[in-house]
Amino acid sequence: MNSNYEAGELLSPFYSPNLGRWTPLPQWLSPAMLILWAPGGFRLTCYYYRKAYYRSFTLHPPGCAVAEGKRGEYSGETTFPLLLQNLHRYLLYFAVIVLLFLWYDVWRALWPQGHFGITVGTLVLALNSTLLTGYTFSCHSLRHVVGGKLDCFSLNATCRVRYRAWSRLSWLNENHMMWAWISLFGVMFADFYVWMVAAGRITNFRII
Ligand code: FES
């Protein structure tokens, strides 16, 4: 099937999983609308992006060692609407599910015209999924899920496994800002690439 987001075995990451494949949708409803709330909400409530847009758009807080202006009635993320930022830890679970589908799309892209092969599109989708995996697994909330709420890492075998996982996630977490930006550009490029192929403007060259 070809549309502006699907070209043969390639599916744009903004539309994955393609729910329109299983459920007939009304013309006006894009399949992306059923999906994007999860990765979009996850990114919007990300601790790194929060810091960036709070500082950039509201100067609140302005930065480390910079005096606060008058706070007035501002109560931060303890009241509505900023209270919704706390949904981040739940959106994480949905983002992981979407990530599994994106890796499934990479698998599908390994079978152009039904035979094993690697196209430029396969590499674009694989790179995108890798960058999004780096972004998701460097998440502060995931690091807390894996290693938080423990008093002692050496207590038993489970705690030691959690410690090892937490150490690896902490290593990724150190560069969360980098993952945030390169994965954002990566996913936009992957969508653009699939759209160009679907529109017939470029050819998805086969490498193998
Ligand atoms: S803190 Fe950025 S994705 Fe969770």
What does it look like?
- The protein has 208 residues and is an all-alpha fold.
- It has a domain at 9-18 and 30-138 and 175-198.
- It contains eight helices and two strands.
- Strands 1-2 form a two-stranded antiparallel ribbon.
- Strand 1 (6-7) and strand 2 form a beta hairpin.
- The longest helix has 23 residues, at 176-198.
Give the ordered list of helices and strands.
EEHHHHHHHH
Specify Rg, calculated over alpha carbons.
20 Å
- Low-confidence runs (pLDDT<50, min 5 residues)? none
**For the residues shown, what is the average pLDDT?**
93
Our estimate of the beta-strand percent is under 5%
Number of helices: 8
Structural class estimated from helices and strands:
mainly alpha
Bound molecules: FE2/S2 (inorganic) cluster
**Beta strands, count:** 2
Q: Which percent bin holds the helix content?
A: 40-55%
Largest sheet: 2 strands, antiparallel
Separation of the first and last Cα atoms: 23 Å
- Morphology call: globular
Brief description of this entry?
The chain has helices at 31-35, 37-44, 47-58, 88-109, 120-137, 140-147, 157-173, 176-198, and strands at residues 6-7, 10-11. With 208 residues, it is mainly α. The chain has a domain at 9-18 and 30-138 and 175-198.
Keywords:
single chain, 208 residues, mainly alpha, two-stranded antiparallel sheet, 8 helices, 2 strands, 54% helix, 2% strand, globular, binds FE2/S2 (inorganic) cluster
Could you give the topology of this structure?
Layout: E1 6-7, E2 10-11, H1 31-35, H2 37-44, H3 47-58, H4 88-109, H5 120-137, H6 140-147, H7 157-173, H8 176-198
Helix pairs in contact: 2-4, 4-5, 5-8, 6-7
The structure holds FE2/S2 (inorganic) cluster (FES).
FE2/S2 (inorganic) cluster (FES) binds next to α3 and α6.
